[in-house]
Amino acid sequence: MAKPEVEFTPISTVEFKSCEPAIDGLSEAILARDDENDTVTRILKFEPGTDTSPNGVLTHEFWEEVFIFEGSFVDLRLNKTFKAGDWATRPPGMEHGPWHSENGAKMFEVRYYRQERSKDE
Questions:
Q1: Is the pTM of this model over 0.70?
Q2: What sections of the sequence does the record tag as coiled-coil (predicted)?
Q3: Which of 23, 34, 58, 119 sits 20 to 30 Å CA-CA off 98?
């Protein structure tokens, strides 16, 4: 099923649940999902003190676009702090994380797979 049609809706109507794999203090609110191609739009929430080190450095097979709209976190691999107003576009295979958020953060994220075109198209 394609992502649902949703008119403006308060974020308070969407439940935050633990992420997989579970990390203490890290949760997600799925705003929309297309189960056919695993496209996801979500809010990722870091509670104060969240440390994603147990997950190590991440890579994945999908595109990911993220925008931090509240708080901050430190990328432990890069030793760099990212804060509200910062954004990233990550192609498949790009290394990122792990992170630590001393005071908490929220991030808007869209994940999608890009269908490659053949050379004949």
A1: yes
A2: none
A3: 34
